[in-house]
# Entry
Amino acid sequence: MTEQELKEIEARANAATPGPWSSISEDAASDYASVGPFVETAEQCETNCKFIAHARDDIPKLLAEVRTLAVDLDIWKAAYKDQQKSNAELWRVLKAGC
# Structure
């Protein structure tokens, strides 16, 4: 995920109405669902619609990025742990030789 994509997602999130949001439509067959809180301006409605429309693509991208970073973190943790073991062994050898 690029920095530009992250900035675009962040801009949409910041422009949307603050949450929490909830559906006021309880009919699953409804043609539309509204979200709260109450939107006072057409501009705010438009930014909320953009946020919702992009969520279908943004959320999978963000989840993939989180998973990638989690794997990377696990690799770095394992490398750090191995390095600590190597350092401890080196100190043991150095102390034994002195």
Notes: The CA atoms of residues 39 and 73 lie 41 Å apart. The chain is about 70% helix and 0% strand.
